[in-house]
Amino acid sequence: MPNYWAIGAIVLAVLTIAIGDARALEESKYPDWSGQWERFVVRGLPGQPSFDQTKPWGFGQQAPLTPEYQKVLEDSIADQAKGGLGNYHTPRCLAAGMPLMMIAFRPLEFVVTPATTYIQIGGDDHHRRIFTDGRSWPSEIEPTFAGYSIGKWIDEDGDGRYDVLEVETRGPFKGPRAYDASGLLCTSIINPYSRNVSIATRRIQTYFTTKSP
Hints:
single chain; alpha+beta; two-stranded antiparallel ribbon; 2 helices; 10 strands; globular
């Protein structure tokens, strides 16, 4: 008489192994972004950490501002010269929000899963979620400082392992928000688009594009 319990246990074990192998194969496609990621500091630049870290903060960012927003930045820097905060609201214990929350003022930590990439930030901005499960944009988005982010992984060099995470972040956003501590203002309708590139030398390069819808 056959032992059906034993046969069932063997089939279950084989299925478990197959599922485990498939999951391991899927996870091996993703880059190892574990650990803490610190901001790359360009020596010799004055002022606070800037949005574009290759340029000084404030006027040194050379942002393509309209005359109206140029005046807003000038007024913010003038207020800070007198001891005020200008348009920089993070010292008031408000979240920085996107995109300032991603400049790595404090070290970032990435938790990568196939469905979602979590970014642990700390401070007034706690975390950010990037959905990579193929979902569509919701018809309504709740206003937040971080916005709603959908991304996709790309194997750019064709080696079977993802090396680029492209992300679009949409509002509506809570505010106020700024690009850096000078009070370079970011409007509530700006949608940041980012491209995170994994470099072999344990470096992540993030390219930001911001646009109005």
